Amino acid sequence: MTVTDTARQAGNSDTLEHLARVGLIAYGVVHLLVAWLAVQLAWFGGGGESADQSGAMSTLAESPIGKPLLWVVALGLIALAAWQAAEVIRWKSGWSASGKQRTKALRKSGNALVKAVIYGALAVLAIRFATGSGQSSSSSQQETTAGVFGWPFGQWLVGAAGLVLIGVGAWHVRKGLNQHFMKQIDTSKASSSAVRLVTRLGQVGFPGKGIALAGVGALLIWAAVTFDPSKARGLDGALRTILDLPFGQILLTLVALGIAAFGAFCLVRARYPERT
């Protein structure tokens, strides 16, 4: 059996699919918590937590069943990362093809690899908070940015990362507007009302998340231009920057609603996941 066959078998595993459902629910809950923290930031000055993934994990950790819940979240996210890693290997056979087939294989592999890294990073974050060693995502990003500044062409690399994030944000906005996200879900067994629900959630959720990601990218570019790692404040910093704009409370609330819609989209997608 080849590596590709093994990856395809793993991707079609019922056990992995069920664990991936848990991961999608966990991913959705994290976004819902970030949205709640953003609303608190907009109208109540924040509840003492960063309005980002670390703030969401900290909120979970402080609940009565926080530590066990974080381990469940971590397990589900690891399953999601493994699911996407299997996708990368599954498309590997198309890398040596030509024309559109090769382009499609590389694009699919690239998308799956990025998702695997994101899910894996969130899983590590959940484990750190479960073990009591979690720290603010903003502080972590500032430390990472400062380290990259010490590399050859580090300032340019940070700026390039910011441009990539802005591009990813724009892609999310476009994905929401053209409803391309519906290709992620097998809705053949869904009712018409369920299809309408997931469509509306995606139309609102993907642009909302895209705007937030673009804000993080803009801060990275500003950090690169000023050669100041403290400017790279992550999602919490991006949301606070939105709050400082004219009509900032309203704008931040709208972004929070978009992030919440994306979280709800993930919950619905867990009901109708696309099997790889």
Written description of the protein model:
It is a single chain. By secondary structure, the protein is mostly helical. Helices cover 77% and strands 0% of the residues. The protein has one domain (3-271). α3 packs across α4, α3 (53-61) packs across α5 (99-130) and α6 (137-149) packs across α9. The model has no long low-confidence stretch (mean pLDDT 89).
Helix-residue proportion: over 70%
Backbone CA Rg: 19 Å
Any low-confidence stretches, pLDDT <50, length ≥5?
none
Number of domains: 1
Structure summary, number of beta strands: 0
In angstroms, what separates the terminal alpha carbons?
Answer: 18 Å
Overall pLDDT score: 89
What tags apply to this protein structure?
276 residues, mainly alpha, 77% helix, membrane, transmembrane helix, DUF1206 domain-containing protein
Short description:
Residues 22-88, 113-177, 204-272 form the DUF1206 domain. The protein is mainly α.
Task: Describe how the helices and strands are arranged.
Elements: H1 3-11, H2 14-44, H3 53-61, H4 66-90, H5 99-130, H6 137-149, H7 154-178, H8 192-226, H9 234-243, H10 248-271
